Amino acid sequence: MTTTFWNKRRINIIDTPGHVDFTLEVERALRVLDGAICLFDSVAGVEPQSETVWRQADKYGVPRICFVNKIDCLGANFFRIKDMIVTNLDAKPPVIQLSIGSKDNFQGVVDLVKMKAVIWSGEELGVKFVYQDISVDLQELAQDYHSQMIEAIVKLDDKAMENYLEGYKLDEKTTRKLIRKGTIFGSFVPVLCGSTFKNKWIQPLLNTVVDYLPSPLDLPVMKGNNLENLELIIEKTTSDEPFAGLAFKIMIDPFVGSFAFVRIYARKLLAGSYLLNANKGKKERIGKLLEMHANSREDIKVALIGDIIAFAGLKDNITDGSYHDVDSCVLAFQLVARRAFKEGIKKASARILEPIMKVEVITVEEHLGDVIGDLNSRRGQINSFGDKPRGLKYVSTLRGMTKGRASYTMQLAKFDVVPQHIQNQLASKEEKVAA
């Protein structure tokens, strides 16, 4: 996580991991994001985990743009990746730029909004670039994709559609306005390309973030629930509303102690302010406001709407439960616990319980039979099927069975008695171990 400035705009950045083991971390971040840049490898394309993250972004309604990276790598194919985005993600991706060359011959891009070529100097690592006319060999392709882009965006505005049908050309300002509108509303997902290794197209990418992704004021109201009666609470994203923020992650630092990552939704916040901790129903004083930059941090005095900062000094950030001071040694606890357990087992009609989990599996149709068979082998009971669902060391088995194209969610439903024949097997196994 870090913060940067571009074209007089502040951009808060959260870099989410792409590995399947960190799916929860990605979802936690998506919940507080205003917009996202989806990175795709120009060789590998849309990978199985890309599909999972895309569904998570759909769940939270996150506006996004696609960036096809590593155009300078061997095997890069921008158009194949664009087609994969359509096929695998069911997205509508108007191309707003084309690559000029690829692999070792990657020189720049064609900006389909300006209808100009952007060429970088090979020795400057993306620092210097110039706009120039599109080369003759790319003009026909550029015009074709420019027309496709215009046809996609004029559908969002009746006046623009009328002018387009009458043969009038859209000016650059109107084109950018409509691309921004479609991106924020989720009508489509613009596609760009470049190479972060050589910093080619990074400056225009930042321009795209500023031009097309929403600011905090562009988004709908924030919704939450009253913890006492579960009534829906609507918070407007303005500076006039009472302060509202969401603590979405707690971390422990050996020097600072515990601190919470917080997304601010309404009103600015000053260091030293008192806030209501909704989980505990208590007011707390915010000791420090920290602006995070990867593994470093900076003290700040004020945080504004849309900022993602860290609070230091929160006291009531533990979960339910209680504790007491240590008044004995670990060995004593172990001996007493074993003895108490044996006494309790003798006096009670002990039965082994197992957790019954509610599992929701999302997979493509071609692997449906394998998944159902595996669930049945685990004594699973299938309650329902869905065409497009919203959403145990099972993840490795499931992804291996479906070549990574399935995901699942799981929550505890209840505890139930283990079947008697399995209880007997467990008892026999323990007796052998004890012997």
UniProtKB/TrEMBL annotation:
Designated name of the protein: Tr-type G domain-containing protein
Keywords: GTP-binding, Nucleotide-binding, Protein biosynthesis
Keyword GTP-binding: yes
Any GO MF annotation of the entry: GTPase activity
SUPFAM superfamilies associated with the record: EF-G C-terminal domain-like, P-loop containing nucleoside triphosphate hydrolases, Translation proteins
Top-rank taxon, per record: Eukaryota
Pfam families for the chain: EF-G_D2 (PF22042), EFG_C (PF00679), GTP_EFTU (PF00009)
PANTHER family: RIBOSOME-RELEASING FACTOR 2, MITOCHONDRIAL, TRANSLATION ELONGATION FACTOR G-RELATED
GO biological process annotation, one example: translation
SMART domains tied to this protein: EFG_C (SM00838)
Tr-type G domain: residues covered: 1-217
